[in-house]
Design brief:
Elements: H1 2-16, E1 31-36, E2 41-46, E3 51-57, E4 62-67, E5 73-78, E6 84-89, E7 94-100, E8 107-112, E9 118-123, E10 128-133, E11 139-144, E12 150-154, E13 161-166, E14 171-176, E15 182-187, E16 192-197, E17 203-208, E18 213-218, E19 223-228, E20 238-239, E21 245-250, E22 255-260, E23 265-271, E24 278-283, E25 289-294, E26 299-304, E27 309-315, E28 320-326
Length: 331
């Protein structure tokens, strides 16, 4: 029966790609906020006009970006020599706060907690996760990962746990947000970086750079559910909100894989030309239109993940990486 269901699912997926894209490219609106890693800045890009509205300075060496659920606040980690967070009011299109991270150097991964008031930030320099109140700018708590190279973070919908990929320890740390306790250290294939977790917190998806693997783990049992080989640098992994698909950009292979997240099958591989360097990924609210930062091209590619087609491109500054979407339309 499972085989029959899967065949039907693949058939329906094939039917979908024969129809027009999920996104009406003429009606996409809102604002992308894109980190320019080499430019120490963020671009505010208007989707309707497909132009950069303005560019604002961050701290030094910005990498990742988290957008609040309402699209009003963007938080950027200044990783390389910046040791700070830059907080932007998207509606006003201005930087409103800089939060000092000198005691917790090399802040990198960042995600909003469920309360949308705090963010969880990995500090690679202190091997910890720092919980920060964005409005007050104060540190709520610091949770040690007890592992080296804590680089990216993942949160289930509850935000009760936070997970970090520890690149120099070949592990993932599981931390309790409320108590601040380290719960587990889970062994991983070599040099884990990319990470996400499903809403229920039952499946952990991890990309391992040295081994060229993307692995799906059963969190409760630390059991491998599925593993894909052949990656060179699986830079990020992102689940659609309905958890039907996962997307995996490979920075060195210049590809984007689209995975059937339910049945754990690779549906397609989108190949880009050499010199693209796919990095940051975020979804439009339609859950099928992907914004992908092309680091080596200084562009954002707008992709329909159902058809695999690049719908259009957007200009960016130098070295686009972290990326966030807001429904806010700037004047």
């Amino acid at each position: 029966m499972r085989l029959v269901n899967y065949v039907v699912y693949v058939f329906l997926f094939g039917c979908l790609i024969s129809f027009p894209s999920w996104a009406d490219t003429n009606n996409l609106s809102g604002t992308l906020v894109v980190v320019n890693k080499k430019g120490d800045s963020v671009d505010f890009i208007d989707l309707s006009s497909r132009k950069i509205k303005l560019t604002l300075a961050t701290g030094r060496g910005p990498h990742e970006l988290a957008m609040s659920a309402d699209g009003h606040t963007a938080v950027v980690t200044n990783y390389a020599r910046g040791n700070s967070l830059s907080v932007f009011d998207v509606r006003q299109a201005k930087k409103v706060k800089t939060i000092d991270f000198s005691r917790y150097p090399k802040p990198h991964g960042v995600l909003f907690l469920k309360d949308q008031k705090r963010v969880a930030v990995s500090s690679e320099g202190s091997d910890s996760v720092v919980i920060v109140d964005i409005e007050s700018g104060k540190i709520d708590k610091v949770i040690a990962t007890e592992q080296r190279g804590s680089h990216m973070v993942a949160l289930p919908a509850s935000s009760e746990r936070v997970y970090t990929t520890n690149m120099r320890a070949d592990s993932v740390s599981e931390l309790d947000v409320k108590s601040g306790a380290l719960l587990r250290k889970i062994s991983m294939p070599k040099v884990p970086e990319a990470i996400t977790i499903n809403k229920s917190g039952s499946e952990l998806w991890v990309g391992s750079n040295d081994d060229g693997l993307v692995t799906v783990f059963d969190v409760a049992n630390e059991r491998i559910i599925k593993q894909w080989q052949g990656y060179s640098f699986p830079y990020r992994v992102l689940l659609t909100r309905d958890e039907q698909f996962a997307v995996i950009p490979d920075y060195r292979n210049h590809t984007l894989d689209v995975i059937d997240a339910m049945h754990k099958e690779k549906l397609r591989q989108i190949k880009f030309e050499p010199g693209t360097g796919p990095k940051g990924v975020i979804l439009h609210p339609d859950d099928r239109t992907l914004f992908l930062s092309a680091y080596q091209k200084n562009k954002v590619l707008v992709i329909d993940i159902v058809s695999g087609k690049t719908l259009f491109e957007l200009p960016t500054g130098n070295g686009p990486d972290g990326i966030g979407y807001s429904a806010v339309v700037l004047p």
